[in-house]
Amino acid sequence: MSHTDGDKKQLQRMTMVYILLMVAGFFVVGGFIKIQLVERKMWMDIAEKHEAEEIKDEARRGNIYSSDGKIMATTIPICNLYVDMGSRLVYDKKGNVAKDSTREKILPDSLYWPVIDSVCAMLGELGRPGRDAQYYKERFENERAKAKPSRCFLVERNIPYTTWDKIVHFNGWGRYVVKLMGDGTSVIRQSREHIYGNLAENCMGFGYNDHRLSTGLEGYYNSVLAGQDGLYECRRLTRGVWIPVTAVDDEGQSASDTLARDKQKRERIDGADIVATIDTRYQDIAETALRQALHRSGGTSRSSGCAILMEAQTGYVLACSNLAWDSVYGEYRELPDKNIACSDLYNPGSTIKTVLLTAMMNDSSIVIDTAMRIRACVKNFTGRQDGEIKDDHFLYKDKERKIRKDTISLKEAITISSNVAMCELGWQNYNDRRNELKRLMERVFPYDILHLDLKTGEYKPIVNDITLSQRDFLGLCFGYAQSISAMQLITFYNALANGGKMMKPLFCKAIIKNGERQEIKPVVMRESICDKKSLKTLNDLLVNVVEHGTGDNIKDNSYGIAGKTGTSVNLNSPGVFNASFAGYFPAENPRYTCLVVVKNVPAYGRSAAAPVFKKISDCVVALDNRLENGKIEVGSRSGRKQLHTVAAKSATRGEEGVVPECRNMTVREAIATLESCGLRAKFEGRGRVVSQNYTKGTKLKTGSTVRLSLRNNL
User: What's the predicted TM-score (pTM) here?
Assistant: First the structure.
């Protein structure tokens, strides 16, 4: 009986197991059916993600060249230098830790000491602020002295690949310089670098890892320079190994046809190169002269400035230096957020008087004659205290500083830069129609955003409402009640140099793609800002400013300069000014326009900005052998001969065969002086004479040669 009950229970258990197996089988079969029929697409997508992938092939970013053929910006490898400075325990022959032993350095003394000084010297030559060879030597020593030095000691970030590679190849160091980080990433990466360092860096652009955030040419032409990254469809060969899907099987089907292919292969297209309008020679000259002026006139952390050189006929910007105080380097440099020429707005001062005069000459309802008499020195226009305008620099005063005459010609007013005279012109003709004056000025001056081909913060000029304030109306006449950028001001003066045609400032000259050069054509903003008669009058006035007026400290007898000084008061800091000089040269046949602005300095435009203009113009004239200024062909043989003849005639005749003192003379002065003594000159270098091989008073044979050494003070 019990046997029968036991068999029944056994049978029941077997039946339950069978049923459970059947149910499980149904679930398994159902799962197969579900995967194959219902969820097939989902699982195929998952398989594609794991077995197929698109690998990006990064495009080469294009180079930026200067107009004189130098590489200004390019992509180069840079590295983070990590060194294995760790230590390890010392074991005996039995494999046990040796008793009373110190930890053994992984980088042994035999390899460390012979090389460490050379490594630190190379790192010190990088010129990082406050980091010389001794700095790196101390870092190494401090780390090596620790009980447990780092196995991945960071020595320096972002060093050139060439420096990193030399350190790697020092005797035995290749094993101890870290090449891969713990996550498998390389210490070597691609970086955008400026070959000439900080030179024109604001124009080239400060690059970032995300190039969409870059500034300057880098930012504006990012899509051109970046090119297009390639995308290659790959499949997994083994773990971590992928191969491109390019092979075709016997049936002519791609090896990845079994995978969903919703992304298409894309070929890599390297970025195009661009040619900037910047000329490294002129840029270096402008930057050096501007930096010297800032140190001489300013020398404080608040001082800053810009110097712009533009080609008159095309609007190409040949030089654009923007210098502000860099507390890290302790000098004036180009900073990422200080594009002074394009972004900073300031009160232009007397340089705006030329704009006012041009606008008035275009008004047919009034007559402007340079010989007309006009009030100067001091006048109260409103009868209130804020309506009094003075000319503090007025020349027509006696010893007791009493006015000798209170009217001068308009030509004299521009020559000495009389504020009262310009206010008188505006008050007499436009006090009851102030908006008309504003409209006339807007027709000749770019009171708007220039939309430059640089990615930089441009601002629209600000002009106060002159209809509500008499003081603002008067201020508009001599450079106040308005804020403009230096680039907008030079655009106006360049129009005067270019026969009245206003050109848009351009920073890119050409795009080079696939070996083909595509020129960027000059852009005309306005065909004419005044007629030819007015243009000649304005040119004569600006030349007279340099010949006999506020700019006579930069007068040059070999080529003409036309320009205007400008000084505006910093209302928040008494005794501190924005000094400027705007003009073009050669005045007889203008080819270049230049503007210099030196901000927050205790000096006027005549003393702070005009000398910078002169240094730039002198160097440009010397470098441009094709330049003709209407008097002579500067740089040509005939031109040099004519200069020597003129200089010789004006020189005092020296004693025949006796060597004169030539130090501190220019080339022309030295040649004229030596020729007047019957001697010849031979030069080495550029600039002014700093030494001569024969001292003053030495008696030589007529026709002998005196060797002179020159040095450029820039």
Answer: 0.71
